[in-house]
Write a structure and sequence with these properties.
Iron-sulfur cluster insertion protein ErpA; mainly beta; iron ion binding; ATAP_core_dom; ATAP; Hypothetical Protein Aq_1857, Chain: A; 1 helix
């Protein structure tokens, strides 16, 4: 059985900051075809669907759809605030390679 993705405390904390100013929506992490390496991450605020995996922490929710789940098995969803910018990042053990910006990967 594949391990579900994990969300760091830092990612939940940043999501809580984002949701302070409006209605609290979950962060959707999905995988779609495309990008320079074959697959790309789609990370956005969205509504949860009935068949989503829901990961909860710090009063926040991160959701993953069933189609994306195998591609994100064992992945770590984090938030990075670096000189090049602040963004949610994914450390994906299933990716055999990824592009320089970290939004595209191949398996």
């Amino acid at each position: 059985m594949n391990l579900p993705p994990k969300v760091t405390e830092r990612a939940f904390a940043r999501l809580a900051e984002i949701n302070e100013s409006g209605d609290a929506r979950p962060l959707r992490v999905a995988v779609a075809g495309g990008g320079c390496s074959g697959f790309q991450y789609d990370i956005r605020l969205d509504q949860a669907e009935a068949d989503d995996l829901v990961l909860e922490g710090a009063g926040q929710r991160v959701v993953v759809d069933p189609v994306s789940l195998p591609y994100l098995a064992g992945a770590i969803i984090d938030f990075a605030d670096e000189l090049i910018g602040a963004r949610f990042v994914i450390d994906n053990p299933n990716a055999s390679s990824s592009c320089g910006c970290g939004t595209s990967f191949s398996i």
